[in-house]
Design goal:
The chain has about 350 residues and is mainly alpha-helical. It has one domain: Rhopdopsin 7-helix transmembrane proteins (Up-down Bundle). It is built from ten helices and no strands. The protein has helices at about 25-50, 55-80, 95-130, 135-155, 180-205, 210-220, 225-245, 250-270, 275-280, 295-350. The relative contact order is 0.12. This is Rhodopsin domain-containing protein. InterPro entries: Rhodopsin_dom_fungi. Keywords: Membrane, Transmembrane, Transmembrane helix. Pfam families: Fung_rhodopsin.
């Protein structure tokens, strides 16, 4: 008696994600759903556990990034509903129009979401190192300006003079030099991520703390490095898709890398906030508190506010001291003048008598 394994069910029927030669949307559905779930969970843990009651500007900026990402996810789900990942031969003309517009919007929203993620990381870094020399804080602020310029320029570069229908693989002339634009955008993105990673090691170089603690902090920021690989894969998959003049199912790899890049960019911003990476690390602006959260941007405000108050009190004391000295001097002068007048008046009275 021989045992045989049951044959797999035919690819028909009501299934969650059906894979056929004309329909390869299942991976996009799964990856997009996982992207939404894991990104939202990590952000919730950041706000409600890691940094509870210690929220700073970096959390607000990252929240804006999640709002933009939400718009991107909605655009992808609209594209999926209208045939993303399916052969264009089985998609109606009206559905193709909606698919093209939704996918085009999703690609545009990807870039500002990445920009907010980078900016949030730099704000966090500035909170950690704000007591350091002016040169170090200036380097972070210059990096912030660079990120803002990149976000604006990248968003305009992939949208100006581009029709949404180029994403379907035909009429590439509707977006002239799109490959070159995307190459410039993503190469610059990789360079900026590398710059962000290099800042903490440069700042920690002069600190007199244990090397193990330095490496632990560097490791926390090193979790951003895989973004360079994901950006490269997104660039390669998109370039191959556009140059091949393909459509339909050929879009799947591009969308997959787009979702992976977006999700990891948002999630990796929270990793440097975890206790296991920064416990025991102390530098002016970062001090690990007993309630498992950081004393971040509010400490900077409090420090400057206290410094201004001390300076104001010192100025008042000095002004009061100067005023008292000036007043006492004037009193002595008045007393001297009165004595002189009295002394000069006595002889006159004597003569009159």
């Amino acid at each position: 008696m021989s045992l045989s394994l049951p044959l797999p069910a035919p690819p028909t029927g009501n299934r969650f994600a059906l894979v056929t030669p004309d329909d390869d949307s299942a991976p996009v559905i799964i990856v997009t759903i996982l992207s939404v779930i894991f990104t939202s969970l990590v952000f919730a843990v950041r706000l409600l556990v890691v940094k509870w009651k210690r929220h700073g500007y970096d959390d607000g900026v990252l929240g804006l990034g999640h709002l933009v990402a939400l718009g991107q996810w909605i655009a992808i789900f609209i594209a999926l509903y209208n045939g993303l990942g399916k052969s264009l031969e089985i998609i109606g003309s009206e559905e193709q129009i909606v698919l093209a517009k939704a996918l085009f919007v999703g690609r545009i929203l990807l870039l500002p979401a990445l920009c907010f993620s980078k900016f949030s990381m730099l704000l966090l870094m500035r909170s950690l190192f704000f007591w350091e020399s002016r040169k170090k804080t200036l380097a972070i602020e210059l990096a912030m300006i660079l990120v803002i310029l990149w976000g604006i320029g990248a968003t305009l570069a992939v949208s100006i003079k581009c029709s949404p229908y180029y994403v379907l693989g035909n009429e590439v002339d509707q977006c002239p030099k799109h490959v070159l634009r995307l190459q410039l955008v993503m190469i610059t993105d990789i360079a900026i991520e590398s710059l962000i990673f290099c800042l903490p090691p440069l700042f920690l170089y002069t600190f007199e703390i244990a090397k193990s603690k330095k490496w632990l902090v560097i490791l926390a920021f090193a979790f951003r490095l895989p973004l360079a690989a994901f950006s490269t894969m997104y660039l390669l998959s998109t370039t191959i898709f556009i140059r091949s003049h393909s459509s339909g199912t050929a879009l799947v790899p591009t969308v997959l890398w787009q979702e992976i890049l977006l999700a990891y960019s948002l999630m990796s911003t929270t990793i440097p906030c975890l206790k296991s990476f920064v416990e025991g690390f102390t530098t002016g602006g970062l001090r690990y508190a007993n309630d498992d959260s950081y004393e971040m941007g509010w400490r900077r405000k409090k420090f400057h506010r206290d410094a201004e108050q001390v300076k104001d009190v010192d100025t008042r004391i000095r002004n009061s001291f100067r005023s008292s000295r000036r007043l006492s001097g004037m009193r002595r002068m008045n007393e001297g003048a009165s004595i002189n007048s009295q002394a000069s008046g006595q002889p006159i009275i004597g003569i009159a008598m």
